[in-house]
Amino acid sequence: MMNRTAFIKFGGTTSFLLHSLSSFQFGTHTASLHSNVSSLIHKITNLNDALNLFDEMSHTRPLPSVVHFTQLLNAVTKMKHFSSSLHLFNQMCAIGVPVDKYSMSIAIKCCCQLYRSKDGFALLGCCFRRAIPPNVYIFNALLDGLVLEDRILEAEMLFKKLIKQKLCEPNVVTYNTMIKGLCKFGNNVTALALLRLMEQKNCKPDIVTYSTIIDSLCKDKLIDDAFKLFKEMLFEKGILPDVITYTSLIRGLCNLGRWDEASKLLKEMEDENISPDVQTFTVLVDAFCKEGKVEEAEAVINIMIERGKAPDLVTYNSLIDGYCLRGEMIKAKKLFDSITLRGLVPDVVTYSSLLNGYCKNLNIEKAEQMFREMSGKGLKPDVVTYSTMIQGFFQVGRCVAARKLFDEMHAQGQIPNECTYGIVLDGLCNNHLVEDALSLFHLVGNSKLNSNVAVYNILIDGASKNGKVDIARVVFQGLTDKGLQPNVRTYTVMISGFCQEGLLGEAKLLFLKMDESGCPPDDVTYRVLLQGYLKNRHYDDVEMLLQEMDDRGYSLDASTLSLFIDDIAAGLLDRSMLKLLGKLVPKELLNDPSLCDWE
DNA sequence: CTAGGGTTAG
Questions:
Q1: What is the pLDDT of residues A240-258, one digit of tens each?
Q2: Domain containing residue A530
Q3: In A36-164, where do the E strands start and end?
Q4: Nearest residue to B8 (CA, C1')?
Q5: What is the pLDDT of residue A428?
């Protein structure tokens, strides 16, 4: 806590306060403080001013009222200085300001926003002891805290308890917070059910309710459902969408590559006089970059600047990623270096993006350099940074370095997640260390990490590629034994493994099982099986498979197609198959010169 | 004097 001396030292930026406060610094005009305090609080723009004003207030006798202290507390909280705000709250208690439900609710909110909902609940206990009946604001803050910490079951329990024990009447914010939690865990169905419950209970869903669910549907690529809800909101409830609603929908469309509709929606929102903001533009930049359309992303940034919406760190992080994806590392680094010139400070994501770019482009030394540099700047590498770097080491065959970093990650308190685990298993397999991957897999045993099909897909693929199809078969069996459902990819990698070993009978059997199991083969499965057949000169089922592909609307890829052409040229396959093959050539390959000379 | 929804990295 800063004292008065420190305040003087900081000087300069707070001169208006000094001036305003000078009237009572010598204890002569305390009355003027009380009348001025609200206006002083409104002028607060930084933490130092707030802390010093608090200091002044706490030395004033009689003490300013709890309302004034709470106003100040609120100002600090709005600046997101949650721990300072909590500190001030504690000071208030210590100097005997009688805290009320308002200050309590702010303090609880601060605990929760700091991922310390446990302390929030402790304060709830204080409410009861001090005969401050907790209100809906307090419970909403606690509910939000649980959601923030991903403690969704406890959030649901609290929500139900509020209603059952009539602790408070849940309002639209309570519902919205619970819905946000459900959406965060991908439970759109229950979120929607809660929206319906609101209607029943006469607690009108509002734009936040709708936007939250619409956003979640978009994230799950359920864009049609999202628009259905959007129309319901607009036409049945008469709620007008705002910039947030539009941004979610635009992102949903962009992520599905439906650019035309996205730009139509962008135009629609501008027609409604809703201006896209920095986040809307950033969504566009990010989507373009992910598609490799960096020029379009740059154009969006230029539009932003023209319109006076300064791109922020997130915008630039996305663009860095876009350059990295295209292997344009010089541009990526140049942008990285220019971020500081724009008055922005690179964060963990910025560093991780560039580091990822260097890894993906196999410049591991530069990646390591970024890794060291960020630590030097006081930025702590997080799970993503570590995972990226570990993957980079594996990609260049530096398995020992990968292992060392994995251990360091543990030591630094960064817990590997599913993705890290997958990277390690994949890395080991790709470096011919299938046995090590299996040992790790068995070591992990029955934990949650091993209940993900992706893990099995990696091991089956890895074992097969190392010529250990027997191990792959055992892992595949283990997956079903565990009650997990293989997905298309699982079947496909297993079939690919069988084909590699010339076990076409087993491949075919598994292929046939897919439809039976309600997991129909996709175009990749067909290509894998066809390649297996062709490479093994097994032509019996080929024509039938091609016909099925045509029926299902699938197409061939360039490499499978060239195998066919080679076999036809060698007279191994009949030219009559060309007609069928012609139907399976994807549009983008039609102008490929290497495929022009057949027929 | 107190509350809620949208953007980035593996």
A1: 999 999 999 999 999 999 9
A2: 524-599
A3: none
A4: A314
A5: 96
